Amino acid sequence: MDARFTEEQQEIRRTLRELTTKRCTPDDIRAATRTPAGHDPELWGTLGSELGLPGLALPEGSGGVGATLTELALVAEELGRVLAPSPLLATCGLAAPLVAALGTGAQCEALLPRIADGSLTAALAVPGTGLATALGLVADNAGDWAGGGRAGGVQAARQDDGWRLYGQAEQVLDGHSAGLLLVAAHTGGFARSRTLLFLVRQDAPGLVRTRQTSLDETRPQARVELRDVGAELLGEQDADVAGALAAVGNGAATLLATEAVGAADRALERTVAYVKEREQFGRPVGSFQAVKHRLADVYVQVQAARSAAYYAAWAASDVQEEAVGGLALAQGLEALRTAAAEAVQLHGGIGFTWEHDAHLYLKRAAGDELLFGPVHLLRARAAQAAELFAAPAEAAL
Q1: 3-state SS class at 161
Q2: What is the pLDDT of residues 51-73, one digit of tens each?
Q3: What is residue 373's predicted lDDT score, i.e. its pLDDT?
Q4: Strands 221-233 and 283-284: what pairing?
Q5: What's the CATH number for 243-385?
Q6: HSE (CB half, 13 Å, CA atoms) of 183?
Q7: 153 φ, ψ to 5°?
Q8: What percent of the chain has pLDDT over 70?
Q9: pTM to 2 decimals?
Q10: What span, in angstroms and rounded, lies between the C-alpha atoms of 195 and 233?
Q11: Would you give the DSSP letter of residue 48?
């Protein structure tokens, strides 16, 4: 394994660092979260139409660049550094890979080029609070996480005019502004129910979308209500939806891990800069040995999380031997939580104020763990998948 980034990959990092430095100041981020879309549409347009970043990991035949998950992870890390709200995760990390994996030729031809150029955003709608389970990150996703054919969840019924959806989905990332929804729904009744994915357009009659108040404003969420909504089946009825969701979950976890690494690294940088300037007892706070040790521990944790995140990206893109995204995400979330907590503490009184940015990093860590964790379940699921604690075979009599 060659862990060095190529010159093209380094250029992606340099370009994004320059762009986010100019366009993603703390004031810009706060303003973007208060827009109806929950992000800066002009910035997303720059990332899409000018830089082509949404299509990095999509095939060239679908209007993409044909790069790997590693390049997309670099983008996620740079956006994570500034906590930039954007549809990147929902569109490129969740929805687009599902369309590419399950969609028919006509569906891919109609949707993927628009996703690649940034003109179409998409979101994955999973009933209840089961997003992490649906993606196979914290439990086996072959169960009844989408309603199980019972009351609740989202149900799909075949009628003369096509498929109709009924139900509700909570915690849909960017669901209030996405131009396309991929809705997980049960069909076939109770006895023969199974989960399928359906395409729902933003202007579909009976679709009600409401932006929710969330802990992390930079990660907007919505409640999606489907009241006899017409939908199009994604792919075929015999598609392996659970397998596709698990594969996408590994990639999405990798992107989340690199986002967390970028945020943790930036929180650490800001904290180091502050303790060099803040004086106590006639000397900089950063000169005290206890402070040095605390920041050194954070640095080691951030670098370990970065190594885990990019190993997961490399494994998914090149060898496809291990689904280690969940482990990388657990490491990244822990690093961000530690870096954010130390940032709040070492900034002293101002670290606890609403006006300072330290609390935004703490909310990103807590919000992502609520959505995609918790950390101990991410690790437990990885151990289960690797059969680390499988019961030994009974000794032959």
Answers
A1: coil
A2: 999 999 999 999 999 999 999 99
A3: 86
A4: unpaired
A5: 1.20.140.10
A6: 37
A7: 65, -155
A8: 92
A9: 0.93
A10: 11
A11: I
- CA distance linking residue 369 with residue 367, whole number of Å: 5
Task: Please report, as a single letter, which amino acid is at residue 78.
Answer: E
Placement of tokens 């679908």 in the chain:
62
Ranges for all domains in the chain classified under CATH 1.20.140.10:
243-385
Residue with token string 């359906």: 198
Pairing mode, strands 162-173 and 180-187: unpaired
Any idea how long the chain is? 397
**Over the stretch 338-393, which tens digit does the pLDDT of each residue have?**
999 999 999 987 877 777 888 999 999 999 999 998 999 999 998 888 788 766 55
Alpha-carbon distance values, 253 to 67, 170, 335 (Å): 18, 20, 15
Q: What fold characterizes domain 123-241?
A: Butyryl-CoA Dehydrogenase, subunit A; domain 2 (2.40.110)
Instruction: Indicate the helix (H) or strand (E) that contains 220.
Output: none
Token pair 């609070």 is at which residue? Answer: 129
pLDDT in tens, 138-180: 988 876 676 554 556 899 999 888 999 999 998 999 999 999 9
- How far, in whole angstroms, is CA 368 from its chain's centroid? 8
Model pLDDT for residues 29-38, shown as the tens digit of each residue: 999 999 999 9
Dihedral sign (CA 368, 374, 375, 379): negative
Provide the CB-side half-sphere exposure for 373 (13 A, CA). 22
Beta strand pairing status for 221-233 and 162-173? Answer: antiparallel
What is the secondary structure of 296-349 as a DSSP string?
HHHHHHHHHHHHHHHHHHHIIIII-----HHHHHHHHHHHHHHHHHHHHHHTGG
Q: Does domain 7-88+111-120 have CATH number 1.10.540.10?
A: yes
Query: CATH 1.10.540.10 residue ranges in the chain?
Result: 7-88+111-120
For residue 175, give every residue at least 6 positions away whose Cβ sits within 8 Å of its Cβ, in sequence order, or none: 90, 123, 125, 169, 181, 209, 221, 222, 223, 224
DSSP result, 50-108: IT-GGGTTS-GGGTS----HHHHHHHHHHHHHTT---SHIIIIIIIHHHHHHH--HHHH
Burial 28-55 (b: 16+ CB within 10 A, else e): bbeebbeeebbbbbebbeebbeebbbbb
